[in-house]
Amino acid sequence: MSDMTIGKVAEAVGVGVETIRFYERRGLIEQPPRPPAGGYRIYSDETMRRVQFIRRAQELGFSLREIAELLSLRTEHDSDAREVRQRATAKLQDVERRIERLQHIRRGLMTLLDRCPGEGPLRCCSIIDALEHDRVPNGETTQRKEPDMQTVRLTIEGMHCDGCAEIVRHVLEQQAGVKGCSVSHENGEAKVAVDTRQTSGERLAEAVRGAGYSTSLVTEAD
């Protein structure tokens, strides 16, 4: 391939012109001199190969500082392949730590979503409550602190309007251990995020019955 302008290098590698200029400012590639007679700067095939090297290394998670070190090793004739392997091994360990952290975050988000009723007034939102009171689950450690947090479902008969649903919601919100709830008169159902160390699904059902509605617990089999 013949020598190219910066635009053609960018197109060939699949990056923007500003990306190549950024690499130049960081000292990863050299900016060629401008021709004495004027015109465009001409980039060599070696420069294009360095840009490709940089992009591929970035895709594998290497930082620009680490890439500069790899480029230095690449051009040193007395470098040993063992050095490159050690750097790649260190990067793999770093990636595995990040994956473990992301898995903790994933578990925490799944726990928050499982506890969230999904509807109703914002004051019943268990996600907002967890964020405001520093009770955000973060993997196994936080889950051990609250092992009995569950979502209880109740079928409720006798609700005819949103006003009925508001009454049931108010009754449930007053019960100990309730972190959030949603009630739908259309579906005849309530979902309650509750700490079962403080109360039980049956107690919640009794409270609803005390308000004049017929209710029963929904089990996993249902």
From TrEMBL:
Domain HTH merR-type: 1-73
Gene3D superfamilies reported in the protein's UniProt record: 1.10.1660.10, 3.30.70.100
Domain HMA: residue ranges: 150-216
One annotated GO biological process: response to mercury ion
Superkingdom as given in the UniProt entry: Bacteria
Cross-referenced InterPro entries: DNA-bd_dom_put_sf, HMA_dom, HMA_dom_sf, MerP/CopZ, MerR, MerR-type_HTH_dom, MerR_fam
Keyword Transcription regulation: yes
Keywords recorded for this protein, A-Z: DNA-binding, Mercuric resistance, Mercury, Metal-binding, Transcription, Transcription regulation
Protein name: Mercuric resistance operon regulatory protein
GO terms, molecular function: DNA binding; DNA-binding transcription factor activity; mercury ion binding
Record function comment: Mediates the mercuric-dependent induction of mercury resistance operon. In the absence of mercury MerR represses transcription by binding tightly to the mer operator region; when mercury is present the dimeric complex binds a single ion and becomes a potent transcriptional activator, while remaining bound to the mer site.
